[in-house]
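Observation: inputs received (chain + adenosine-5'-triphosphate).
Thought: call the complex predictor directly.
Action: predict_structure
Action Input:
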Amino acid sequence: MATAYDNATRTSDLEHEGIVPVIAVENVYKSFASHKVLNGINLRVNRGETLAVLGRSGTGKSVLLRLIIRLETLDSGSVCIHGQDIAGLPLDHMGKVRMKMGFLFQHAALYDSLTVAENIAFPLEHHRRDISRSERMDRVRQLLAEVGMEGDLNKMPSDISGGMQKRVGLARALALEPEILLLDEPTAGLDPISSGEIDNLILKLQRERKMASVVVTHDLHSARTIANHLALLDQGKVVIEGKFEKLQQSDIEFVKEFLK
Ligand SMILES: Nc1ncnc2c1ncn2[C@@H]1O[C@H](COP(=O)(O)OP(=O)(O)OP(=O)(O)O)[C@@H](O)[C@H]1O
Ligand SMILES: [Mg+2]
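Observation:
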């Protein structure tokens, strides 16, 4: 099976050429009251790359994604998007940066009272006032076709399976043609076949759109399939980062335990 390795340029090659990463997380610390969650995280993602973030429950994976989109504020360190530190950006400017980001929340978070089509149209209605209603509906159909759900336009979220809900969430995350895709547990709670379908879909989208993606997952098989590089978090730090083979060859006890 094809993997993300086939397509992306290696981080080190790009750094060599002096290319600024799309996402750069530098020495990030984050606590909630006395609870230290992130203790100096460094990560970089270039265009066309997918980084999988792994780690046990409660290690701060979702917090990390929320920091990248600035839904949380960090204590110290920086998150740079295309070389720009987002911490000090005025809200309207941050809004523009966020429009470049597609986000799939951990708990699917479709709007229950809206149809599949309305869910996908939502970001377009709010951020693309320049496009007409019929253009918007064309775009919604296109996006649904991209995730293989063109026939389900008028269904309600409660009438479709978990895997289909994730697909709709993905389509919605793609609506504004993001340069950055942030996916929090896109295959959680799915059976292996549906998970595999979502993985293939993420790979296909990545190949076509060359986004910089961060995927948080518990699923090692999925991480291996979709990501160019993986980062394993523990106690607020990146224990190891690199290709799957590097993790496999590691002598670090925590890594060996995690891969079991
Ligand atoms: N807004 C918040 N206020 C206080 N504590 C928080 C807040 N958000 C997250 N935390 C705490 O930070 C820690 C990390 O949470 P996070 O949701 O990032 O974990 P996670 O790695 O995504 O876990 P899971 O794999 O279960 O989704 C947890 O202990 C959580 O309780
Ligand atoms: Mg989480």
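Thought: report the result.
Final Answer: The beta strands are 23-32, 35-45, 50-55, 76-81, 84-85, 101-104, 180-184, 212-216, 229-234, 237-242. The pocket of adenosine-5'-triphosphate (ligand 1) is lined by residues 32, 37, 55, 57-63, 106 (CB under 6 Å).
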